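Q: Second attempt. The first request was missing the SMILES, so the protein and zinc ion are both included now.
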Amino acid sequence: MNNFYFTTTLPYVNAKPHIGHALEFVQADVICRRRKSQGDEVLFNVGTDEHGLKMFQKAEELGLPIQEFVNKNAQTFIDFFEAFAINYTNFYRTSAPTHTAVAQGMRNRCSEAGDIYKKSYSGLYCVGCESFKTSKDLISIDTPNWTGWEKIEIAKNMPHMEILSDTEWLTMTQWFWSKRIQVCPDHLTEPVVFEQENYFFRLSKYKEQLTNYYTSTEALLPSNKLNELLNFLEQMEDISISRTKESLPRWVPVPDDDTQVMYVWFDALSNYIWAAGFPDDMDKVEKFWPGVQIFGPDNLRFQCAIRQGMLASAWFPLTKTFLMHGMILGPDGNKMSKTLGNVISPMDQLEKYGAEAVRFYLIAGIPTFGDAAYKEDDLINLRNSHLANAFGNLLSRVITLANKKELSIQSGLVSDKATKKIYATKKHVTHLYNTYELYDAVWNIHDLALRANKYLDEHKPRDKEADPLDVLQTLTDLWAVLRTLIELYTPVIPKHCATAKTMLETQEKWILFQKID
Ligand SMILES: [Zn+2]
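A: Got both inputs this time. The predicted holo structure:
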């Protein structure tokens, strides 16, 4: 038996769970369920990040006390986990009273390593990202809400205005009434200037150690993201890890300095090790740490660089495996945004198709490590072809036939040929699950279901003149295949598989997957 620690990232609770969260949590849940079924002891950590400026701003906007606001929104995540059958073992909230000791404990260890110092700092800060930006991080856009007086001055001195063509005139006017500003590429808002004396973490000290770690291991999946990470590591500088207390009174205080509070990342990133037992149960840490971390594309540098620097400084082993899932795009292939009106809500999808249809689509329809558009037609097609037509139909055919021939399908011996095929599929799919290739895993399971249906077609056990022993053999082999399909599909669609198992045991027929038109 292995000990398996797995953690998702902690989403901010300034909004309801979106489809990207659904992808991350469902992938995580599938991995952890599979590990449990293999006999591993699993620690599956989820949680919510309830600090940060965004939460304050949103609460203020709604006129709610901050704790009431975060409680309410944390609850939407708890309901979401319940609805999608996310079978976690820990739910971490950064507003929990225990969190202070955790964050401070982590900081003290970094401080003992000589990695924390004080320095005055001024920088551009994006509230949306909760991080400082350099001009390299920003993009230029035109904003039309500007009177353009400076440009009038320029234009006054420009000759030949009267000979411009229509398009030139249009471009000219657009330019005239717009102002180029530098904004955060993710939030399209201008960063604010932040000036403070803060504590800094000596992240640059770990540049080499981290670079060696990623280049000498296969810790980061998918491996095609390695270059992006190495580039970041190469430019990595020390980071500010505190703010003045008056600006953010609710945050975790810096030990021995009551004028400062811990900066959101340094504080929230300590949750992962807490979930493994730190600081109260170091035996548990020993047992479970390090583990596997899943996160989305915008979290690469925080999870793989900043957090690992903290771990290295605090003398903890680095995270063993990093899984970076892709981004789910709108049905039109563009990034989802309210302005484009292409946002898919996981709860709406759940109401429309049921939780397990959505779970199945997120695994079988979205590549495990890549960006993809969310298409409801694909969801319907995949559910119909994989689950209703292949898996469900096989189950139904086998039970019907067994009942018609008055046979108990669990009584025979599985043939060598079937045993070999089942064993090979099981071994391969287990390998895929254990290397986090979830998409490939379910497509291989589907392949077994297709072959089994074909096998049944070829053996024609329905024929009147079919040899009863032959029929029994076919049914017994397919019974073994069905048991395997159920076992392998269980991490993805647990409820349907539980029903399928009962059907197979009692030889009673229900419609397992109603086809969606
Ligand atoms: Zn931003």
